[in-house]
């Protein structure tokens, strides 16, 4: 008999938690939230100084483009709910164009993640940590995301 009576139950539960998969809906919601929160929260400061009095037009155009991207994403997810776009994209646009698009998406999301990290770093250093070196906050942020 085990010393801890729930050891087999815990190991099964732990195994089941680690083996869960991300659904299409979860992945789509993550992309939508990441896209809209980044554009709304961090890119507006770059858009407004150059837009002057046409700022409302820029926001409307970006909103329409975001809705179009979201509609296309959900329409493709409804077509094949059990598959990811990375797997069946070559059937839609061809193999080489699909590879180029996926590499572009990868660089786009890495760029946005770097932009968000830079904005958060600037905010934290200006408001909360004015005497901290500017490289320390991103280093701590990147170390905190390291997997166990």
UniProtKB/TrEMBL annotation:
<protein>
    <submittedName>
        <fullName>GerAB/ArcD/ProY family transporter</fullName>
    </submittedName>
</protein>
<feature type="transmembrane region" description="Helical">
    <location>
        <begin position="54"/>
        <end position="76"/>
    </location>
</feature>
<dbReference type="InterPro" id="IPR004761">
    <property type="entry name" value="Spore_GerAB"/>
</dbReference>
<keyword id="KW-1133">Transmembrane helix</keyword>
<feature type="transmembrane region" description="Helical">
    <location>
        <begin position="25"/>
        <end position="48"/>
    </location>
</feature>
<dbReference type="GO" id="GO:0016020">
    <property type="term" value="C:membrane"/>
</dbReference>
<keyword id="KW-0812">Transmembrane</keyword>
<dbReference type="Pfam" id="PF03845">
    <property type="entry name" value="Spore_permease"/>
</dbReference>
<keyword id="KW-0472">Membrane</keyword>
<dbReference type="GO" id="GO:0009847">
    <property type="term" value="P:spore germination"/>
</dbReference>
<feature type="transmembrane region" description="Helical">
    <location>
        <begin position="96"/>
        <end position="117"/>
    </location>
</feature>
